[in-house]
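Anyone up for a design puzzle?
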């Protein structure tokens, strides 16, 4: 699991990566520290004894709440979702990118994760054209 997270993190190095593992979302290393400081999520150590990794997790049902807190704090988020097969491969990575313009968060159309699938939703657009 730690190896897979590291591989996915290379695809979204500028985002806090949340990876689905069954009915839970996992976060590791620096991303775990960011989420813990922002939300109070409890962390534990995992992996090799010689090189432990900080781990955190929460139920998938809390995904919207945690994404909202990260985005409101100015973080970009990537969510790695599993498919429904027995092997539970990662089927897609959804990115929620936050851009700062003059100290105002600009939220473009993003994809909001829901239990019944993905739904495009305009959250906020503070840009003036």
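Challenge accepted. My sequence:
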């Amino acid at each position: 699991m730690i190896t897979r997270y590291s591989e996915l993190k290379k695809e979204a190095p500028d985002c806090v990566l949340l990876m689905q593992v069954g009915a839970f979302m996992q976060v590791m290393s620096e991303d775990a520290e960011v989420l813990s400081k922002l939300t109070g999520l409890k962390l534990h150590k995992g992996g090799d004894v010689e090189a432990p990794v900080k781990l955190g997790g929460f139920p998938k049902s809390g995904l919207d709440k945690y994404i909202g807190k990260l985005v409101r704090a100015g973080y970009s988020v990537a969510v790695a979702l599993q498919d429904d097969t027995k092997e539970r491969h990662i089927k897609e990575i959804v990115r929620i990118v936050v851009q700062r313009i003059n100290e105002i968060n600009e939220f473009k159309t993003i994809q909001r994760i829901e239990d019944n699938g993905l739904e495009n939703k305009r959250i906020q657009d503070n840009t003036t054209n």
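A detail worth pointing out: The helical segments are 2-11, 29-39, 63-72.
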